[in-house]
Amino acid sequence: MSRFPVVKPQGKFVSAVFGHKKLGFPEQTPCQRPKSGSVTRPVFFGTITRARMLCITFKRLHRLLPSLVITLAACVADGGEIQFNRDIRPILADKCFACHGPDASHRKADLRLDTREGALADLDGYAAVAPGAPGRSELLTRITTDDEDDLMPPPDTGKQLSADEKKQLHDWIAQGAEYEAHWAYIPPTRPAVPGVGDRAWPSGAIDRFILARLESENLSPSPQADAATLARRLHFDLTGLPPSPGLAKRLAKSPEAYARVVDELLASPRFGERLASYWLDLVRYADTVGRIMRSRRTATGSSRRSTTTCRLTSSLPSNSPATCCPTRR
Prior knowledge:
Layout lengths: L12 H6 L22 H38 L5 H12 L1 H4 L15 H5 L17 H7 L18 H12 L30 H12 L10 H12 L6 H9 L4 H9 L2 H14 L2 H8 L4 H17 L16
């Protein structure tokens, strides 16, 4: 007998619940569900697949939080200043680099826009970019002309610049047309902390950036969360696990203990396991060690998982000795 017995359906239960219908898999109605303890193949595997996709989606959203904070700080600090990596490089990469980028075999008119030297090069009496002089920059002339033979990007490419993109290129050239190295090679620097009207609310530099943006939109911060809410947020964010009942009482009695609780959780193996899950997902740990190499799972997989968890918990580099902590059995 099949491990997952199939019941012939007479409805559209599967399509209504899972949003799709696959050929070869029968549907089932609420009135014709299998007996207790059994489930049809589409429901069983569809539930697992959707749960997995939902988990991956939440993990990706969680990874975006630091980027959102950095972007917010940059927007508040820089104001109207045009930055090459943030504002200009995406435009050039999408609209210009295919013909005027690093690939010499596809480069046209001997013009290279991915480097400052190429953009400022003398092209028989003119230059694509003249820093501080938008009127003498051939790039701006070509992207604003009405002549389809001279218009850039060419109309047949289907990649036309918007009015906002043209303005950003104009302002960038007017501000000096400064290029930047790839962001990975630029040492991070602390932006200037913005001033705020309510000086009592911020408890740190990041709060000042957030409050400055809120005040610019005529908004006010939300009220302080209670101890139970803070405990849940802290535990789920750092360990992925619910907090103990005593943690909320501890924070309620001593609000200044919040920083100590953070340090305790950062030193916990559960924090390392949560970080390790992202790394192990990227190297497809479950697909390789967990399934294909079943015979080596204990010797190799468990050791690799424990070593990754240990290094992340202890903030050790990836080339640290594998004996930084004992292998968990």
